[in-house]
Structure prediction request, 941 residues.
Amino acid sequence: MTEDLSPAERYAAARKRAAEQATALADFREMYDFGLDPFQIEACQALETGKGVLVAAPTGSGKTIVGEFAVHLALQQGKKCFYTTPIKALSNQKYADLVKRYGVDKVGLLTGDNSVNADAPVVVMTTEVLRNMLYAGSQTLLGLGYVVMDEVHYLSDRFRGAVWEEVIIHLPESVTLVSLSATVSNAEEFGDWLDTVRGDTEVIVSEHRPVPLFQHVLAGRRMYDLFEEGEGRKKAVNPDLTRMARMEASRSYNPRDRRKGKMVREADRERERRQRSRIWTPGRPEVIERLDSEGLLPAITFIFSRAACEAAVQQCLYAGLRLNDEEARARVREIVEERTAAIPDEDLHVLGYFEWLEGLERGIAAHHAGMLPTFKEVVEELFVRGLVKAVFATETLALGINMPARSVILEKLVKWNGEQHADITPGEYTQLTGRAGRRGIDVEGHAVVLWQRGFSPEHLAGLAGTRTYPLRSSFKPSYNMAVNLVEQFGRHRSRELLETSFAQFQADKSVVGISRQVQRNEEGLDGYKASMTCHLGDFEEYARLRRELKDRETDLAKQGAAQRRAAAAAALEKLKPGDVIHVPSGKFAGLALVLDPGIPAGRSNGHRGFEQHDGPRPLVLTAERQVKRLASIDFPVPVEALERMRIPKSFNARSPQSRRDLASALRTKAGHIVPDRHRRNRAAAADDREITRLRAELRAHPCHGCDEREDHARWAERYYRLRRDTQQLERRIEGRTNTIARTFDRIVALLTEMDYLRGDEVTQNGKRLARLYGELDLLASECLRDGVWEGLSPAELAACVSALVFEARAADDALAPKLPSGKAKAALGEMVRIWGRLDALEEEFKISQTEGVGQREPDLGFAWAAHQWASGKGLDEVLREADMPAGDFVRWCKQVIDVLGQISAAAPAVSGAGDGDTVAKNARKAVDALRRGVVAYSSVG
Prediction:
């Protein structure tokens, strides 16, 4: 090739090669036994020239290489590099990778659980740790040259996303930022913002998957390709799948069905029955066997339920599946015994160790947040080593953990999002299927979706074809953020800083588009107004009368409905435990026994924020033995007690036998009673004078007699609809301007009222709040201020602090949680009262949880478990009473430990308890009491 070049060209090429070899990138490339991709080279070159970079690339494409180059540059230049990740498991994994490359002396780790070599030149940490350092002005920041933010698309996360923006905004200007993101559709917009707040930032987007991904649908015994083969045109959905979906959609066969006036012929039905017999949803063991026979293992099957993941493993074991030979089984046992050697034998039984080990030896495992962290880490290690070949996982596995597979299986395209069953988004689909195809091992990756009733190939094609999803800011100011900002920058500068957030950047950009829409709407309004002109009179006036009539009729209908609801609520408030009622409608309609009348009407705070209750929500036992908390929607009409029954003191709502016995007594006592039918009153509109007047004015109006009246009315309806939409757009423009700053102003006003701030001065109370991070930061500060936790033992303090972090996974429709007695119970009650006071203040200052700001009600559901564990009780007893998986128990304990650490730093040095037994000292004792057994086991340090 060089022979074809002129001497001058050869000289220029040689100079270029020499220049490249003199760069840090050339040294870095020699550390790897594979070549770098073009996007990696481009990003590394930009970094070496001093620019910040945003790299958006698919899962598994190797974007972390760019982060590792930042580490290389920092070490070469004698600077520090912080490598941040969203979750502790990822931090542990990255720490292990970097230690392997650079040695244990040069790499440190900082997470909520571990602190290893924190002064090293390279430190891996969770993003929250870096945020806390920035606010505290930590000395560790001295000499910092590079920060790598892995999985930066986490800033979309509703609960934790604000932390990423806080770090990006507050990092010193001298620090070069490396942002690594999944493929997002608005990378350029995000890059523009980074350019604004961080200076020169190069945006590198790669859509290329290093291992091509093939999409399949498994139906019955056959695996279908989702797309037809073909090049040079848009991919078309496999017509076989479309035909099968259409055939399944045709409803079930009935001899009475008529086709063209004749009975359906038996032969037709038999033919279609044979075709349908080829379509079914294969069982889990069947799917794994099928993939194994086609050489498509190892595979991850995503199931959006922890219990279903465990059930899947059991189904495979019962089916006799064995994916490992004897040599692999022995190696698995050796690794597992080594990793779990620190766990006492009595705990192993409680944790289901032997059933778990049986699955691992056969090459099958579950992976979900309910598992003990040590168990999850073992599954990850064995999967990467090829000793576990089938993993059944919840979607949490998709969050950055390095567990690539040859195939990914999705059982369903619907998941529970905490409020309802919803379709997974294209972004979620891309994240999940991105695990398929191991770079350097597999030639291709495979995404397999199981056929389900009602399956739509076109919907799946839409998910598979939409490769990207937009990055949306979830940034909101918090109380802790406000006091930290005011202390560092003063109120005015803090307000300006918040207006540089990505959230405000996006809001401001959207206003431009909305303004254009308002202009277009105003042009449309002129056209509609001309079209509704009537030669007989003022049609705009006639249309206004029609609209007033319609609005009045709607208002009266709403008032009637509201009165019926109020009557129903009033009837519910009269119910007492032991009343037998007839639930008039809903899923649990029929005979029921009231166990607990429920809360009074008003505003309550659940695990997902504020809820408005029209009336009590009685907890009832139905005649079908179900214990459920009903809502006002189940009572469209007033209900009254039909009978009274005594509820035995020994009744336990969680015991099937108790429910069965009481339901049987209920049917015997009141099964024969027929409830009275509720009669509706005469409609209010029939006697309303305003409606009578408006109807008379309409009939008397000149336009009422127009032959084209209804045609004009249609144009008028369009005019009013467009005018209403335009007014809404104008309100949106007003609402989106300075939104973050306005929220900050309201927070500052509340903190000033409570003596946390005085102008630009942060008071002693404010300094305490500045050390408390978390969702209930202000509540924790108020508890310290009021001495609520003084005089508590370490176990009692752990119980109280658990209420600041714990949130139940399911809606609270069971009986009240079990609480420790004595001082702890009184302190928990006082915490709820303080929250009520704060809630009223937030309402007064227009601070709303619906906007992601404010204090939710403390959840007491983990208090008993935290108290028992801190008191030294055994794991078996604690887990049994808490009715909670080991993984959840460990995670909540670690979060309690984290907040106790903050409290020990924030609590006053001397409390009113005397004998030096301060809250701070007891918080440290509580940390030691909680950090034992399964809670203390950790993969690092």
